[in-house]
């Protein structure tokens, strides 16, 4: 049977075994399409059934999370941890708290994480977890009680050498604090079983900044292949959370002009640029007051609010999708390209729909997929694990230098595996480079 037919059958089996999990199917399809053509070079992968095994999580845990709200009512959420692949190291990946969370979302994120973590060059496997809990509008007390209940199950399956969760959508410094407190109480251990911790109790310098900074470093590396940089360019950023904020900060520092931010209700457009003092205001709005981005347009005259809209109709040179999956659809991608956007660096995980990816690749723009462009976050988490294990802390400068080196080497690997007649297909490059390393490790470790 021709190889592509075999891979297609494996994919059909994945769909059958994981019914309704459309985001997971989307993530698997993209990776299999990239790696299928190179599999002829690696007959040992077929013999060891690497593709079949890599699509099946090593372990999946689903649990009940009961908690009591401020009115004394019992609430019940569902918790997940998908420990997808540990061939390269302990499971590693974030926790997402968002009402849209279900098995298919956590599985797609865990699957992507395998290849992303492999690309960082650090010894970390792939996992993801979370809950359908919605932190929006909840008091600190409610968030704390939820986190404590969540950890009361999770602590059994995590640990510094086993599985090391971190943040993602809806899980930032506050949530990691409550989760770590409960972990420490239940286990009587103070160790690096979570990353994204606060600086004064085991966190790493630059972890909050790492994903956003990394996505900008990756854009700069892509632009350098055309003798350019982000300096002087106009950028559209989506989202207004952790990744978006530090993407804007780094773009400002490097001399770009950021004209948009958004949340799930709409987009703000500020053609003068969301610079220094305005960004500080956004950080206070989102991280302290936990307000909505629409308030920006009331506060800063000259800015506009596009209710219910995404940023992609605003003309830009560079786009940094930093909110959520499938936030760029085919029409959005066409509009971006038509308006002159020629570099997309994904801070979010799988923000471009498969049809949108096709548009970017057909237009031969610089398109950096999430598993490469946003790997800076987990890379600095890996450095946090390393610092915790050695009971030491690296300086901001040291971590930043390592982050740049890691992003640079991810870029080099994408170019190495993704070059096609003078064009770099970063999707293919990231998927193949990430996959081959994990597959080799799986072959060497036997059928487990
Ligand atoms: P935050 O919770 O800090 O911010 C999320 C932002 O995205 C908010 O502005 C939120 O708006 C918006 N958003 C969330 N869901 C949706 C939706 N369904 N539609 C539109 N907007 C939405 O999360 P992060 O910044 O940490 O994460 C953003 C993205 O980056 C995610 O895809 C995440 O997986 C990815 N990522 C994060 C890393 C990290 O280190 N934190 C590392 C690598 C990738 P609203 O307030 O309206 O919900
Ligand atoms: O998607 C991601 O890479 C993250 N949310 C960060 C994971 C981590 O372990 O730091």
Describe this structure in words.
- The protein has 448 residues and is an alpha/beta fold.
- The protein folds into three domains: 1-56 and 428-448, Glutamate Dehydrogenase, Chain A, domain 3, CATH 1.10.285; 59-189, Rossmann fold (3-Layer(aba) Sandwich); 210-373, Rossmann fold.
- Helix content is 48%, strand content 16%.
- It has 17 helices and 14 strands.
- It has helices at 3-17, 22-35, 43-47, 50-54, 103-120, 140-154, 173-187, 207-224, 242-253, 276-287, 295-299, 330-338, 354-362, 370-373, 375-389, 396-418, 426-444; strands at 59-68, 74-85, 91-97, 125-131, 163-166, 234-237, 257-263, 266-269, 304-307, 318-320, 343-345, 366-368, 419-420, 423-424.
- The strands form three sheets. Strands 9-8-7-6-10-11-12 form a seven-stranded mixed sheet, sandwiched between helices.
- Helix 2 runs parallel beside helix 5 and helix 8 packs across helix 9.
- The chain is globular.
- The relative contact order is 0.12.
- The model has no long low-confidence stretch (mean pLDDT 97).
- The structure holds NADPH dihydro-nicotinamide-adenine-dinucleotide phosphate (NDP) and (2Z)-2-iminopentanedioic acid (2IT).
Please outline the helices and strands.
Elements: H1 3-17, H2 22-35, H3 43-47, H4 50-54, E1 59-68, E2 74-85, E3 91-97, H5 103-120, E4 125-131, H6 140-154, E5 163-166, H7 173-187, H8 207-224, E6 234-237, H9 242-253, E7 257-263, E8 266-269, H10 276-287, H11 295-299, E9 304-307, E10 318-320, H12 330-338, E11 343-345, H13 354-362, E12 366-368, H14 370-373, H15 375-389, H16 396-418, E13 419-420, E14 423-424, H17 426-444
Parallel strand pairs: 3-4, 3-5, 6-7, 6-10, 10-11, 11-12
Antiparallel strand pairs: 1-2, 2-4, 7-8, 8-9, 13-14
Helix pairs in contact: 1-2, 2-5, 2-17, 5-15, 5-17, 6-7, 8-9, 8-15, 8-16, 9-10, 12-13, 15-16, 16-17
């Amino acid at each position: 049977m021709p190889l592509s037919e075999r891979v297609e059958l494996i994919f059909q089996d994945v769909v059958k075994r994981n019914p309704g999990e459309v985001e997971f199917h989307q993530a698997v399809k993209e990776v299999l399409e990239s790696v299928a053509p190179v599999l002829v070079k690696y007959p040992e992968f077929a013999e060891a059934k690497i593709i079949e095994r890599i699509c099946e999580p090593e372990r999946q845990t689903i649990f009940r999370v009961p908690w009591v709200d401020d009115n004394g009512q019992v609430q019940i959420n569902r918790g997940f941890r998908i420990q997808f692949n540990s061939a390269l190291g302990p499971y590693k990946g974030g926790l997402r708290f968002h009402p849209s969370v279900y098995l298919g979302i956590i599985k797609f994120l865990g699957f992507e994480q395998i290849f992303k973590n492999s690309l960082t060059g650090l010894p970390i496997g792939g996992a993801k977890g979370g809950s359908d809990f919605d932190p929006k509008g909840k008091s600190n007390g409610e968030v704390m009680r939820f986190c404590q209940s969540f950890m009361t199950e999770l602590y059994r399956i995590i640990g510094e050498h086993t599985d090391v969760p971190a943040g993602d959508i809806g899980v930032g410094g506050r949530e990691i604090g409550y989760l770590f407190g409960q972990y420490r109480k239940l286990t009587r251990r103070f160790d690096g079983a979570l990353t994204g911790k606060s600086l004064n109790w085991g966190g790493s310098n630059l972890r909050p900044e790492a994903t956003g900074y990394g996505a900008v470093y990756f854009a700069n590396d892509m632009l350098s292949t055309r003798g350019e940089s982000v300096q002087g360019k106009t950028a559209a950023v989506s989202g207004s959370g952790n990744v978006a904020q530090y993407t804007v900060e780094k773009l400002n520092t490097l001399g770009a002009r950021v004209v948009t931010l958004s949340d799930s209700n709409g987009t703000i457009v500020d053609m003068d640029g969301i610079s220094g003092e305005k960004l500080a205001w956004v950080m206070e709005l989102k991280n302290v007051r936990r307000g909505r981005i629409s308030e920006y347009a009331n506060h800063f005259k000259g800015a506009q609010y596009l209710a219910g809209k995404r940023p992609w109709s605003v003309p830009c040179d560079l786009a940094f999708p930093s909110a959520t999956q499938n936030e760029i659809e085919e029409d959005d991608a066409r509009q971006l390209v038509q308006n002159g956007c020629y570099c997309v660096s994904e801070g979010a995980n799988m923000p471009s729909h498969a049809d949108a990816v096709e548009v970017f690749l057909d237009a031969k723009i610089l398109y950096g997929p999430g598993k490469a462009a946003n790997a800076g976050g987990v890379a600095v988490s890996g450095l946090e694990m390393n610092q915790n294990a050695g009971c030491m802390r690296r300086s901001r400068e040291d971590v930043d230098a390592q982050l740049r080196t890691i992003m640079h080497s991810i870029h080099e690997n994408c170019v190495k595996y993704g070059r096609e007649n003078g064009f770099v297909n970063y999707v293919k490059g990231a998927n193949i480079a990430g996959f081959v390393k994990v597959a080799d490790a799986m072959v060497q470790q036997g059928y487990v």
